[in-house]
Amino acid sequence: MDLSELFKSTLLIGPEIALIITGIIVMVVDPLIKGERKRNLFWIALVGLAVGFILNLERFHNGTSAFSGALSLDGFAAYFNLIFIIGAFLATILSKDYIESMNLRIGEYYALIIFSTSGMMILSSAREFMSLFLGFEIMSVSVYVLSGFNRRSVRSAEAGIKYLVLGGFSSAILLYGIALIYGASGTIFLDEIAANFNASNPLYLAGTALILTGFIFKIGAFPLHQWVPDIYEGAPVTVTGFMSVGVKAAAFAILLRVLFEGFSGIEANWMQALWIVSAFTMTIGNLAAIVQTSIKRMLAYSSIAHAGYALVGVVASYGGKELGLSSVMYYLFAYMVMNLGAFGVLAYLSKDGKECETFDDISGIWRRKPLTAIALGIFMFSLAGIPPTIGFFAKYRVFLSAVKAEFFWLAIIGILNSVISAYYYLRVLVYAYMREESVVFPRFKPTSVVALTILTIGTLLLGILPLNSWDLAIKAAGSFLLTFGAK
Amino acid sequence: MESVLFYIFAAASVAGALLVVFHKNPIASALSLVLTLFSTAVLFIFLLAHFVAAIQILVYAGAIMVLFMFTVMFLNIREESLKFDAQNLPVKLGVLLLILFIFGYFASIGFKKSFSLNHAASLPESFGTVEGVGEVLFKDYLLPFELTSVLIVVAILGVVAIAKRGTD
Asked: 3-class SS at A187?
């Protein structure tokens, strides 16, 4: 690679660079200003994310690759980047009131959200294991810190340490897998690995298994789902919202790319493994969610279940099927909208250093705050997959793709699980609409309301008119299949 | 000659790693890590990666180990809180060795298969020298190199966010 090519490649990764520079600006400006004025860092963060968003749109039209194929800047990556940036943007807006009322450090918070997003964006386009791992770590390390961000809360600190230790362990497993694959193939580029792939060589099998393990941990799927409830419950609620949508989507992006591009040689093997993982993830997530007494913990288990639904789509894209791939991508987008909304409502109802997390904390909001109650209702309907919401449409696509790919049993397990999940989502609404209030609700928070309104309208509107966003997912999946020339 | 030295240092590095895990005294554990890192550095020299070997000793065995020692001393761990659970020790060690053996067996098959493919190209002249490493680092792997710096910035930011006292 000569210098002019390096220069060209650097210009191509504008969105990532924009976010990293924004993160550094927030970080540097933070100690220079004092007190109340730190709240203005919020605007720097929003502008940076908006710039990243606009620069990223270009990639839908002309996909290229940069750094001699280390990054593939195709529609697939662009679609996932859209999920990350919109997610980070709305999470930032939702966080403003929350971190100010909790008295958390403002500058570091926004900077870490932005750095984490830039790591996810590297991850979604990485086609080479070294950049992949670094993107993975940039994303993870930021999120470790964010989950332990509320230092006055013992549970937040516990969540941070737990996530750091367990996440470090999973990264080590992933790295070990990468090392074995490198040892066997002599290369870290996914396309070259696919070309050298030799299924009778145990190193490839062991490497694939270890890499898959690392990703399954980050997705929060069975059997590595145990960390999810503890950490999602302990972390500040806005951080939980951000990481449940962003980190999960990023892990799915890289899972899809590595499996389909790098390890298509043993497709039948990992497909069967993921079939089992998916069925157990849905079932265990849903069954455990039923018995929870804290909404935050219930939503954590529900996020495990949703990872299972998305995995149905991964299994259904076996053989490089466009429908399955686009259904996973669309599902993650839909999950971003509705889950961020659900956590956003919890953040909105938190006040004076106390989070809204038990069922008592939301009982009777219908009487005092009818609009918040309606938003909560829409998000819960959407998470349960009831029409006319985005959640219904996304779930329909995932199960449809499973049926079309002839995974009937997986589709049946998924549908049964959706029925079970309706119970605990609707239980939230029973408390919100039919019980007497037992706590005093916080005052009106203008900034969070903006984000909640956007999310509510998005959940409904895309549920009624899903076609545009769905076409985008199909196009992105098509561009992904083009990059490595699958059928 | 080379293979004899290889086995000596390979054994030393494994022994050091085991001592890190099994030794009661955390300071001794940390010092055993130096042994492992030093022996690995020697193995790097056998692979003609002189620069990496030098960096391994300077950075890991030098700087990082000092940090480890400081942390261990700051934590001021009492001896009895570290009582090693000696119950079923032979069984535990046996299982560990069995796993290692099975893994080593399959790995050796795997590596034999990989290298019969003969994709290990002949090494360039500058391999392992400062010049060669620099060339690769700043041209072929510029992106990972820069991403590493972002990762370090994030880590520093995280440490400050967690360790700094007060909120404002």
From this structure: coil
Distance CA A429, CA A419 (A): 16
Residue A90's pLDDT is: 92
Question: What pTM was estimated for this model as a whole?
Answer: 0.89
The pair of structure tokens assigned to A24 is 């550094």
pLDDT tens-digit map of A2-56 = 778 888 888 888 889 999 999 999 999 988 888 788 888 889 999 999 999 998 8
**In DSSP terms, which residues pair with A126 in a beta bridge?**
A71
Residues of B in contact with A201 (CB under 8 A): 109-110, 113-114
ipTM of the complex: 0.89
> Alpha helices, DSSP H only, in A226-368?
227-234, 237-257, 267-290, 295-316, 322-348, 365-368
Cis peptide before A223 (omega within 30 of 0): yes
Q: Average the pLDDT over A81-106 and give the result.
A: 88
Q: Which of B113, B119, B164 sits opposite A201 (nearest CB)?
A: B113
Amino acid at residue number A460: L
CB A362 within 8 A of CB A295: yes
* Structure token digits, residue A458: 């998005």
Q: How far apart are CA A173 and CA A133, in angstroms?
A: 11
Domains in chain B: boundaries: 2-78+88-119+126-167
Distance CA A343, CA A240 (A): 7
| Alpha helices (H) along A435-466 | 446-464
Q: Measured between beta carbons, which residues in chain B are less than 8 angstroms from residue A203? A: 106-107, 110-111, 113-114
Q: Which CATH class is domain B2-78+88-119+126-167?
A: mainly alpha
CB A83 within 8 A of CB A336: yes
